[in-house]
Amino acid sequence: MDALVIHSAGDLRVEEVATPALGTGQLQARVRFGGICGSDLHYYQHGGFGTVRVKEPMVLGHEIAGTIEAVGSGVQGFAVGDRVAISPSRPCGRCRYCQQGLQNHCLDMRYYGSAMRTPHVQGAFRQQIVIEPSQAYRLAEGVSDAEGALSEPLSVALHAVRRAGPLLGKSVLVTGCGPIGALIVIAARRAGATRIVVTDVGAFPLRTAIKVGADETVNVGERPDALDAFSADKGSFDVLFEASGNQAALRGAFDAIRPRGIIVQVGLGGEMTLPVNTIVAKEFELRGAFRFHEEFEMAVDLLNKRLVDVKPLISATLSYRDAGRAFALAADRSQAMKVLLDFE
Q: Whole-model pTM?
């Protein structure tokens, strides 16, 4: 079968790889769509991120949906033809963090398309994949495979919103409106936030933010001091979701957050220097949000019940054979949010 294999920065190839063997208690799925994530772009553009580097050929991808085409012996509850969203997260279930219900911190995590460990964990941008039944979540009739492929980034957003605590009646600021920032808008609204303001440096992401439910957007590229209007009386927002991974975005929002406000850092970038005096004086709570676990099932449930709409985020769908153009488009924030690869 064909797969998208990264060898080094800029060297992404369509290669033939072995069709996986179906084992007892496993499922084989035909991959239909895969979403290009920010981490995929980092591997493609830079050969990795931070200290994580591609050291050997690796199949990219972890945002996928497809159709069950074979059911291993001993598997119940699935049938050939079932359409499923597939979780890329495979915690060991045995380490102390898994035993505490913190599977996203698993000590032996195997996450599709990750060079964090060597040998690398091969990804899901391939025509067929063998999975565990615990990774498969059925998509309801009427929910497209393309929407199903967004279950993974939606799970990240849901985990971030859960890390913030109750949002009912709260005023929320989201800095950075890539796909995760936009999905945080959706998740925060479902959680009861009554006011959501979004910042970014680009017009296209901000237009998308309005489409998915933001009340107001601020282009800090054009108006760097625009958040000053929210700083009166020690701040306006109860919760900040920082989704850009940019130090300037995080620091620039501090004056707009009220005392004892909650800051959830979602975006990953370089190391940051923070004004600790401000954190102390305003008694901020700074919380990280990393990946997800049980939120994947929640994401699919929300999609199946039509309680969220992720379609405005899908900017384009291209064949995996045209991966170079797809990755270039995904990197262009002036015209794309989420670009999907079609593996048919």
A: 0.96
